[in-house]
Design brief:
The chain has three helices and four strands. The protein is α+β, with helices and mostly antiparallel strands and 108 residues long. The chain has one domain: Gyrase A, domain 2 (2-Layer Sandwich). It has a four-stranded antiparallel β-sheet.
Length: 108
């Protein structure tokens, strides 16, 4: 299963730092997402472009995880010739993260 099946995402940037929020569609999926969408998984997922660190912030009241990726935008908006210097497509790329299948209880 892909992360996009359980969550949506939004990005922001400042210089060479990208911020990606992952928000569960169903707040009941938050704990499962927090267990499986880790800093290590995100770091590995972005290994080809990430030169810095990944820090995860948990926002359980919002059903969201916020990831801050440093040195992730090839220098940032004013220094990069990348097609996406703001990193807006990184949300879509993260939503392609492969996750274990989520087993849901059968409803009565």
């Amino acid at each position: 299963m892909r992360l996009r099946e359980l969550a949506h995402a939004r990005t922001g940037d400042k210089g060479d730092t990208s911020q990606i929020s992952v928000i569960a569609y169903d707040p009941g999926d938050y704990a499962w997402l927090a267990e499986h969408v880790t800093e290590a998984r995100v770091r590995a997922h972005f290994a080809a472009i990430l030169k810095g660190e990944v820090t995860r912030y948990e926002l359980p009241a919002l059903g969201a995880l916020n990831f801050v990726l440093t040195a992730a935008l090839a220098g940032g908006v004013t220094r990069s010739l990348a097609l996406d210097p703001h990193g807006k497509t990184l949300a879509s790329l993260l939503l392609e993260l492969d996750l274990p299948d989520r087993q849901r209880p059968l409803s009565a």
